[in-house]
Amino acid sequence: MVRSKLIILDRDGVINHDSDAFIKSTDEWIPIPGSLEAIARLNQAGYRVVVATNQSGIARGLFSILTLNAIHQKMHLAAKLVGADIDAVFFCPHAADDNCACRKPKAGMLLDIAKRFDVSLKGVPNVGDSLRDLQAGFLAGCAPYLVLTGKGEATQAKGGLPPGTKVHADLAAVVDLLLKKRAEPAPSV
Ligand SMILES: [Mg+2]
Ligand SMILES: [Zn+2]
């Protein structure tokens, strides 16, 4: 099937359990129940699924790019096991005070995704558990979805979400809604 739609997901707290101590090893990467199956359902409905994730643990020296690659390999393999396909992972390895263009809440990573996939981000669903995920997506024209997994409940309690933010229990619930909205099959490009 030609995948003509795009969705952008944060990683920690959306696909896998988050930790205040960072996800520093493959063992610490543990999927949230139902998240990979939800990605498979998106794929079947014609979505390309792209991850955009801040990984300042690299700048802090908590883990290396090699370890990050191994974590992502584990994620891709776990996805494959349930028939899910993550098309790409974009990450920002910088610290907040590096002042890069890619670290969320800046929109740089999302604009890179738009360029790579040659699509407009207008209305593209952007799913995150932190305010800065949704701020970055909002700047890029995405439709913001907050999930209550990971840091989501604290994020909702703090408020200040971009206008139009939809709040759902988890990624599986977001996908339920997205797929229910579309009655007809995805158009091919
Ligand atoms: Mg997160
Ligand atoms: Zn960066």
Automatic annotation (TrEMBL):
<dbReference type="InterPro" id="IPR023214">
    <property type="entry name" value="HAD_sf"/>
</dbReference>
<dbReference type="Pfam" id="PF00702">
    <property type="entry name" value="Hydrolase"/>
</dbReference>
<feature type="binding site">
    <location>
        <position position="94"/>
    </location>
    <ligand>
        <name>Zn(2+)</name>
    </ligand>
</feature>
<dbReference type="GO" id="GO:0034200">
    <property type="term" value="F:D-glycero-beta-D-manno-heptose 1,7-bisphosphate 7-phosphatase activity"/>
</dbReference>
<feature type="active site" description="Proton donor">
    <location>
        <position position="12"/>
    </location>
</feature>
<dbReference type="InterPro" id="IPR006543">
    <property type="entry name" value="Histidinol-phos"/>
</dbReference>
<feature type="site" description="Stabilizes the phosphoryl group">
    <location>
        <position position="104"/>
    </location>
</feature>
<feature type="binding site">
    <location>
        <position position="100"/>
    </location>
    <ligand>
        <name>Zn(2+)</name>
    </ligand>
</feature>
<feature type="binding site">
    <location>
        <position position="12"/>
    </location>
    <ligand>
        <name>Mg(2+)</name>
    </ligand>
</feature>
<dbReference type="GO" id="GO:0046872">
    <property type="term" value="F:metal ion binding"/>
</dbReference>
<keyword id="KW-0460">Magnesium</keyword>
<feature type="site" description="Stabilizes the phosphoryl group">
    <location>
        <position position="53"/>
    </location>
</feature>
<keyword id="KW-0862">Zinc</keyword>
<feature type="binding site">
    <location>
        <position position="10"/>
    </location>
    <ligand>
        <name>Mg(2+)</name>
    </ligand>
</feature>
<feature type="binding site">
    <location>
        <position position="92"/>
    </location>
    <ligand>
        <name>Zn(2+)</name>
    </ligand>
</feature>
<dbReference type="InterPro" id="IPR004446">
    <property type="entry name" value="Heptose_bisP_phosphatase"/>
</dbReference>
<comment type="pathway">
    <text>Nucleotide-sugar biosynthesis; ADP-L-glycero-beta-D-manno-heptose biosynthesis; ADP-L-glycero-beta-D-manno-heptose from D-glycero-beta-D-manno-heptose 7-phosphate: step 2/4.</text>
</comment>
<feature type="binding site">
    <location>
        <position position="102"/>
    </location>
    <ligand>
        <name>Zn(2+)</name>
    </ligand>
</feature>
<keyword id="KW-0963">Cytoplasm</keyword>
<dbReference type="InterPro" id="IPR036412">
    <property type="entry name" value="HAD-like_sf"/>
</dbReference>
<dbReference type="InterPro" id="IPR006549">
    <property type="entry name" value="HAD-SF_hydro_IIIA"/>
</dbReference>
<feature type="active site" description="Nucleophile">
    <location>
        <position position="10"/>
    </location>
</feature>
<protein>
    <recommendedName>
        <fullName>D,D-heptose 1,7-bisphosphate phosphatase</fullName>
        <ecNumber>3.1.3.-</ecNumber>
    </recommendedName>
</protein>
<comment type="similarity">
    <text>Belongs to the gmhB family.</text>
</comment>
<comment type="subunit">
    <text>Monomer.</text>
</comment>
<feature type="binding site">
    <location>
        <position position="129"/>
    </location>
    <ligand>
        <name>Mg(2+)</name>
    </ligand>
</feature>
<keyword id="KW-0119">Carbohydrate metabolism</keyword>
<dbReference type="GO" id="GO:0005975">
    <property type="term" value="P:carbohydrate metabolic process"/>
</dbReference>
<keyword id="KW-0479">Metal-binding</keyword>
<feature type="site" description="Contributes to substrate recognition">
    <location>
        <position position="103"/>
    </location>
</feature>
<dbReference type="GO" id="GO:0005737">
    <property type="term" value="C:cytoplasm"/>
</dbReference>
<keyword id="KW-0378">Hydrolase</keyword>
